[in-house]
Amino acid sequence: MGSALPLGDPAPPDGALPDDLGHDPSTPFGVYLHVPFCRVRCGYCDFNTYTATELQGARQDQYADTVGQEIALARRVLGDAGALRPAQTVFFGGGTPTLLPAGDLGRMLAGVTDAFGLADGAEITVEANPDTVTPAVVRELAASGVTRLSIGMQSARPHVLAALDRTHDPANVATAVAAARDAGLAVSVDLIYGAPGESLDDWRASLETAVALHPDHLSAYALIVEDGTKLARQIRRGEVVAPDDDLQADMYELADDLLAAAGFDWYEVSNWARDDTRRSRHNLAYWRGTDWWGFGPGAHSHVAGLRWWNVKHPAAYAQRLALGESPAAARERPDATARRLESVLLRSRIREGLPFTELTDEGVRAVASLVDEGLVAAEGAGAGRVVLTRRGRLLADTVVRTLTA
């Protein structure tokens, strides 16, 4: 059911933003819609998700209406603060959004459109488990305004999927991609590497299978062992071996080589796209620190430097909204030092790089040593930006620590 929520200041029951919260109307605004339902809990997953047996007091068939109540609250709150803007991106994440009927997802999207409007050419993404995608489902999503499907492939090897507790049929990935293409949707494929028992050859096979599907976009994430997960307990008991850092580095380099050869460019440490127009604009908004409202249990939001997060359980979330109250559990306004640290952490990961203006004087002086160590590109540094080399991408945490020391 995900990690514990962070601590913060009390959030007002009406969700009102502080009177002194200034906002820039030119700052892009995005919407995240969290669908917390899964058929099976994957052993590595730390997201706020729930299987049917964990949903006491909450119902999937009422979820779209419940989210609609938060959408109405958001319009009221942002309107009162003079911060209403059309959504440039909308992202349905989870969980497994496609466990809900496509019509429910369409109603949620219509609620967002009615409340905020959509910018011209808005990117509308739905994450999907391959087993939940059919031509009929994808056609209905496309008709509702969805523009992009992000398919959780994870691996092409059955034994790797089993190690991750993924239950989908690998053959259904190609079927899902074909259905999305036929409906006119852009396609992203998500992979995970470094699972227990996965070899470099296994990973190569998954990459080659994914590339052969000709997606517009591909994400490849190193498996991370999160506290409190089934995988963490298995490793602690010695039942499986922890991910090997050196092997994961080899897997990353293999991915970068194969994807570059197939015409993909990296634009964030774990993300590649066929060209600039096929990047995930929604995720780029997170890395650039723009504004978004996250709807659903456990979802996080950010507007003009204010952050807040919702209560975690779907039942508690629904109960608050039924009472006409904000589902926010707490909120915070990070100070300038915390905002700078976060900017370095996130913006250094993207290809456009981190401008020196986001660094302290000590951070700027540290760039030269990072260039000498081959972690930061000299050309980017000469233009006043921190741009990671491939070695720097592998050691991104080291770069951040050096820049913020």
TrEMBL record:
<keyword id="KW-0411">Iron-sulfur</keyword>
<keyword id="KW-0963">Cytoplasm</keyword>
<dbReference type="GO" id="GO:0005737">
    <property type="term" value="C:cytoplasm"/>
</dbReference>
<dbReference type="GO" id="GO:0051539">
    <property type="term" value="F:4 iron, 4 sulfur cluster binding"/>
</dbReference>
<dbReference type="InterPro" id="IPR006638">
    <property type="entry name" value="Elp3/MiaA/NifB-like_rSAM"/>
</dbReference>
<dbReference type="GO" id="GO:0004109">
    <property type="term" value="F:coproporphyrinogen oxidase activity"/>
</dbReference>
<keyword id="KW-0349">Heme</keyword>
<keyword id="KW-0408">Iron</keyword>
<keyword id="KW-0004">4Fe-4S</keyword>
<dbReference type="InterPro" id="IPR034505">
    <property type="entry name" value="Coproporphyrinogen-III_oxidase"/>
</dbReference>
<feature type="domain" description="Radical SAM core">
    <location>
        <begin position="23"/>
        <end position="265"/>
    </location>
</feature>
<dbReference type="InterPro" id="IPR058240">
    <property type="entry name" value="rSAM_sf"/>
</dbReference>
<protein>
    <recommendedName>
        <fullName>Heme chaperone HemW</fullName>
    </recommendedName>
</protein>
<dbReference type="InterPro" id="IPR007197">
    <property type="entry name" value="rSAM"/>
</dbReference>
<dbReference type="GO" id="GO:0006779">
    <property type="term" value="P:porphyrin-containing compound biosynthetic process"/>
</dbReference>
<keyword id="KW-0949">S-adenosyl-L-methionine</keyword>
<keyword id="KW-0143">Chaperone</keyword>
<keyword id="KW-0479">Metal-binding</keyword>
<comment type="function">
    <text>Probably acts as a heme chaperone, transferring heme to an unknown acceptor. Binds one molecule of heme per monomer, possibly covalently. Binds 1 [4Fe-4S] cluster. The cluster is coordinated with 3 cysteines and an exchangeable S-adenosyl-L-methionine.</text>
</comment>
<dbReference type="GO" id="GO:0046872">
    <property type="term" value="F:metal ion binding"/>
</dbReference>
<feature type="region of interest" description="Disordered">
    <location>
        <begin position="1"/>
        <end position="22"/>
    </location>
</feature>
<comment type="similarity">
    <text>Belongs to the anaerobic coproporphyrinogen-III oxidase family. HemW subfamily.</text>
</comment>
<dbReference type="Pfam" id="PF04055">
    <property type="entry name" value="Radical_SAM"/>
</dbReference>
<dbReference type="InterPro" id="IPR004559">
    <property type="entry name" value="HemW-like"/>
</dbReference>
